């Protein structure tokens, strides 16, 4: 008896090397051009000489038409990366790890963070879809750069780029990682997809939204709505948006894509705001251990900032 599944296909564009290895892919909604795709491939493809992309017949193992950088839209299908003359070429991929994030749960017991109230006050709507609600029940304020990675945030020099004039206590302490310049307000169902880098915003392309995975047709091609933010010290930083966008490319476009926990896995372990340390999903997988460490780091960050604020008032 045949079984049916409602699971969406992950990709409708894939690129192979001459040995048949998948080196790249994504879900094409009809908006991503060859100019863009070539520029993204150049971020993680390593070869000893120039390369080109050709159409590819995976059954006959034959290359087809050359696909040069151009404004033309990439058509769904299979492609192969070869030398410009069509010869084989060794392909390696940049081994840059993706910055793991964990979903934010609305029922997590925590005091109201300043970044949430400030983000809501600044935006008043989802900056992707324009959705407005009376009570913010359908909106969440999301970090662009995750606060659990504050050590990397500092190492990259982001605190010095924040021009937000609020008190440090309102910005997550001296690191300023909770600055309103590091958050955007999103429709609630988009928050976890944002954390998973399923879509990103490219400031270099008129702040257009590019979705890297299937299931995001309703937002792909939209533009981040920032016209209402006149004060530059309140505006999300382009550099942070680019950083987030590149994480999406490395996570979902490079190679076969990175394995990940599903939302249900996180919900099973962290659903009530506590840690279920008896759950084997934490201890039996690398992703589980990393997720636990990040969740703990995020909560310790809140505790540390609260202590710093208390000491500052003494």
UniProtKB/TrEMBL annotation:
<dbReference type="Pfam" id="PF13391">
    <property type="entry name" value="HNH_2"/>
</dbReference>
<dbReference type="InterPro" id="IPR003615">
    <property type="entry name" value="HNH_nuc"/>
</dbReference>
<feature type="domain" description="HNH nuclease">
    <location>
        <begin position="126"/>
        <end position="202"/>
    </location>
</feature>
<protein>
    <recommendedName>
        <fullName>HNH nuclease domain-containing protein</fullName>
    </recommendedName>
</protein>
């Amino acid at each position: 008896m045949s079984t049916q599944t409602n699971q969406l296909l992950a990709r409708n564009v894939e690129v192979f090397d001459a040995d048949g290895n998948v080196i790249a892919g994504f879900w094409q909604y009809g908006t991503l051009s060859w100019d863009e795709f070539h520029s993204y491939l150049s971020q993680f493809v390593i070869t000893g000489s120039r390369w080109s992309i050709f159409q590819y017949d995976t059954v006959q193992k034959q290359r087809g038409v050359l696909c040069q950088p151009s404004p033309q839209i990439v058509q769904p299908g299979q492609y192969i990366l070869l030398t410009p003359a069509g010869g084989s070429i060794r392909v390696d991929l940049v081994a840059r790890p993706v910055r793991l994030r964990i979903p934010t749960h609305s029922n997590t017991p925590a005091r109201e963070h300043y970044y949430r109230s400030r983000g809501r006050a600044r935006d008043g709507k989802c900056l992707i879809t324009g959705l407005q609600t009376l009570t913010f029940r359908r909106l969440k304020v999301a970090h662009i750069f995750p606060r659990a990675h504050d050590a990397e945030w500092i190492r990259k020099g982001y605190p010095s780029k924040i021009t937000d004039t609020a008190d440090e206590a309102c910005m997550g302490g001296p690191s300023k990682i909770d600055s309103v310049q590091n958050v955007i307000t999103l429709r609630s169902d988009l928050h976890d997809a944002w954390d998973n880098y399923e879509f990103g915003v490219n400031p270099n392309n008129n702040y257009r939204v590019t979705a890297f995975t299937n299931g995001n047709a309703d937002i792909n091609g939209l533009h981040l709505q920032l016209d209402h933010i006149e004060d530059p010290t309140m505006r999300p930083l382009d550099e942070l948006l680019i950083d987030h966008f590149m994480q999406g490319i490395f996570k979902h476009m490079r190679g076969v894509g990175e394995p990940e926990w599903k939302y249900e896995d996180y919900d099973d372990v962290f659903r009530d705001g506590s840690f279920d340390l008896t759950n084997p999903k934490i201890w039996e997988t690398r992703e589980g251990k990393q997720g636990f460490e990040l969740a703990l780091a995020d909560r310790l960050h809140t505790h540390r900032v609260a202590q710093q604020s208390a000491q500052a008032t003494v």
